[in-house]
Please model this.
Amino acid sequence: MVRNLGETNSVLNKFISELRDANVQNDKFRFRKNLERIGEIFAYEISKELEFEQKEITTPLGMSEMLVMKDNIVLATVLRAGLPLHQGLLNFFDQAQNAFIGSYRKYHKDNTFEIKSEYISSPSVEDKFLILSDPMLASGSSMLLAYKDLTRENDPKHLHLVTVIAAKEGIEYIQDNLPEGKYTIWAGAIDQELTAKSYIVPGLGDAGDLAFGDKN
Model:
């Protein structure tokens, strides 16, 4: 299932338009803040799909029966670009456990590349809601590799993939490689073009560099 939140008029589209805007991108603080805000919007929408339970709350004046989320969420992100988006999700899912994956593009002499993963820190995701975020879903390879690393010995209850901007090709790649009914893709926008070097067009550029500065 794919949920494209950008298809509905909301403040989300304002934040995404600022992420895309080359003039606004010069402000790294604003870029990170917009990613964080978008993470909070995704968190609110995803919360409607999670499990709740009845809990009796004591107020100063009596008792109240409330529906509260169960403590069965793991937030995961791909370093480094995913950190602001992850923080936005964590602002709402503040009791969630957290996982981090270090992956990168390993380029070959013929200018092709493959996705490599060299670091992972994660709790067990067994029977939990796994929310895996990355600002950009281009080819889908890094997201799929991260999922495989996180679930090598554990089987989550459901996977929620969160991305601000996705390429149509990347979404199709995920759909071809994950079992139907076990995941939901949440996107802020879906772009139609992916270059030979797996850059989304029009996209927004390199989210990691725009958030944290250029890398060697």
User: Anything to note?
Assistant: The chain has a mean pLDDT of 92.
